[in-house]
Amino acid sequence: MEFASSGIWLIVALLAIVYYYFHRKFSYWKDRGVPYIEPNFPLGNLNWKHTGNLRKLFDKLYNAGGETPFVGGYISIKPVVVATDLDFVKDVLVKDFSNFHGRGMYVNEKDDPVSGHLFSLDGPKWKSLRMKLSPTFTSGKMKYMFPTIVDVSEQFNQTLGETLHKVKEIDVKEILACFTTDVIGSCAFGLECNSLKDPDTVFRKYGRMIFERSKTRSIKRVIFLLPKLAAILRLSVFSKEINNFFMGIVRQTITHREKNNVRRNDFMDLLINLKNSGSLDEEKKTKLEELTLEEMTAQAFVFFAAGFETSSTTMMFALYELALSLDIQERLRTEINTVYTKHEGRLTYEAIKDMVYLDQVINETLRKYPPVPALQRIAQADYKVTNTKLVIEKGTTVMIPAYQIQHDHRYYPNPEKFDPDRFLPELWKARHPMTFLSFGDGPRNCIGLRFGRMQSRVGLAMLLKNYRFEVSKKTPIPMKFSKSGGILSPLDGMHLKITKI
């Protein structure tokens, strides 16, 4: 009896110690006078229930702001900064980028080579890769890739026309993903994916696998929020099957091109050049290291994954808003037809640049539906916040809620209204530069933003010239977002009524 009593008191004592430990950890922001949302014991704010619903979580955090330029949250017991002030956002992304250049993403290059891509890497390796890959996305390179995108868009037009002979209402989310998969497959790998003709083709299959949700991946997502624990467990971000597929494709493509002296002026050509000769660091005038097969695969992988999903989602939300606002749709169609006529009925690189209102529609779509709802940075050293006594300690995660900023009525009156005229040059210039973060900002902004914009412009120009889009009984009104995945997307697809013009 005495032994049992001692055991009970031991358990009580241990529980008291644990409670005190968490209480002290969860007092971090309170002790510093920073507004915060009360964390949930023991997983903080960003627990497994929230991993697929960050938008609503950030709504609460963003609206809890006070006089400080950020509010406090918690990943487990780890304090997290959630930015609410645009000048502070600019300091993090641009002015003091040297102290916030890392994202703090989990990477396991040994067991999971494709995870070692530009988006996730930090430090010198990120800087070296960014420098090597930047030449791929210049306006000159975009011109080289443009005809390929137009060719795929013409196949898209033919496939969609054949589909509409059978049905008038389709899920545009899936067919747009097939279009962008074929574009990226061609530009990144030089391969005809044929997703438009066969939605179950191998590239489309692996594209779905990258973003699919499962219980196992949900558990991993939580652990990835704690990179040191994930490293101890040697977790892989992506499955062995995905790694083997992309490694095989890249290896075969390299072998074929080098053996047959094939040049296509695409992303793979640049990677092959970097594999064989490295590149020059213009700042230090020193030669950068050559890329390994694993490094090449990781970069081709992220170009494929990010390129097909974000662009298809942007076009999907644009068509949704245009179906809801037929007057805007007609105005845009008039511009597209006018520009086609000006350029002798051909869709050229110069013609796309002339479609100014199309660009405004895409910008407004990205404002209202940013593909990545929040940006993440890690403090590399203790950082004193401008005009305050606050210090962000080394290793602290800084989250920038792009969705909330781009829906803030202070910057965009009536933010739920779809209004492309918000992006008239004079209005855009008058706003704070950090009010539009759909491509990030600063030295670590989206490296593929030119390509993504071009792909979306070509796809939308072709679609709106040839088809009229309207809502149907299955169209999600109001919009309901999926709680899974890191890319903002609708809960149950995007069904629209389509009529050939």
Automatic annotation (TrEMBL):
Localization: Endoplasmic reticulum membrane; Microsome membrane
Main location: endoplasmic reticulum
CDD domains named in the record: CYP6-like
UniProt-annotated binding residues for heme: 446
Protein origin, superkingdom: Eukaryota
Keyword match ATP-binding: no
An MF annotation (GO) of this entry: heme binding
Transmembrane region(s): 6-22
Cofactor(s) for this UniProt protein: heme
GO cellular component, one term: endoplasmic reticulum membrane
Membrane topology: Peripheral membrane protein
Keywords: Endoplasmic reticulum, Heme, Iron, Membrane, Metal-binding, Microsome, Monooxygenase, Oxidoreductase, Transmembrane, Transmembrane helix
Listed PROSITE patterns: CYTOCHROME_P450 (PS00086)
InterPro entries noted in UniProt: Cyt_P450, Cyt_P450_CS, Cyt_P450_E_grp-I, Cyt_P450_sf, Insect_CytP450_Detox
UniProt xrefs under PANTHER family: CYTOCHROME P450 (PTHR24292), CYTOCHROME P450 6A16, ISOFORM B-RELATED (PTHR24292:SF100)
Family: Belongs to the cytochrome P450 family.
Name used for this protein in its record: Cytochrome P450
Organism taxonomic ancestry: Eukaryota, Metazoa, Ecdysozoa, Arthropoda, Hexapoda
